[in-house]
Amino acid sequence: MIFFGDRGKIARNTYKPINMKIILVKYLCKENCRESFLQAIKQNNIDTLCRQEAGNLKYEYVYSEEDDNVLILNEIWRDDEAVRLHGQAAHFKLLGELKAQYVIETKIERFNAEKDE
């Protein structure tokens, strides 16, 4: 992008676009375990710790309106590096342990979205 700076000189814009990573996770929980799974996440502060991570822009759990056994996680991360570091966090590993107790199947969809800084 080119814009005119002071005194009519042409200058190059040096902004960097944010290459955000959007992750949609659908947890198919064991029969009647959706609420217990979400409570375990909250009791272990996993949701809070993820929101506090550098590069996290959104981390939100919602119930599926279509299936009483599905919990949906909407995540938005600043970039690939934030996602990579998130995967190394101790609370991420703890989430994996909780999934073993409560979840039958996990489906993950990933999207890229570019936004100007």
Word description of this protein:
- The chain has about 120 residues and is an alpha+beta fold.
- The chain has one domain (about 15-115): 2-Layer Sandwich (Alpha-Beta Plaits).
- Helices cover about 30% and strands about 40% of the residues.
- It has helices at about 35-45, 45-50, 80-85, 90-100; strands at about 1-5, 10, 15-30, 55-65, 70-75, 105-115.
- Strands 4-5-3-6 form a four-stranded antiparallel β-sheet.
Topology:
Layout: E1 2-4, E2 10-12, E3 17-29, H1 34-43, H2 46-51, E4 56-63, E5 70-77, H3 80-86, H4 90-102, E6 103-116
Antiparallel strand pairs: 1-2, 3-5, 3-6, 4-5
Structural class: alpha+beta
Stretches where pLDDT is under 50 for at least 5 consecutive residues are 1-12
Helical run tally: 4
Beta-strand content: 35-45%
Number of strands: 6
The domain tally reads: 1
Label the overall shape: globular
What is the CATH domain class?
A: Alpha Beta
**On the 0-100 scale, what is the average pLDDT?**
88
Corresponding CATH architecture:
2-Layer Sandwich
> What is the C-alpha radius of gyration, as a whole number of Å?
19 Å
Tell me about the largest β-sheet: 4 strands, antiparallel
First and last CA, distance: 13 Å
> Which bin fits the share of residues in helices?
25-40%
Walk across the major sheet and give the strand order: 4-5-3-6
Entry summary:
With 117 residues, the chain is α+β, with helices and mostly antiparallel strands. The chain has helices at 34-43, 46-51, 80-86, 90-102, and strands spanning 2-4, 10-12, 17-29, 56-63, 70-77, 103-116.
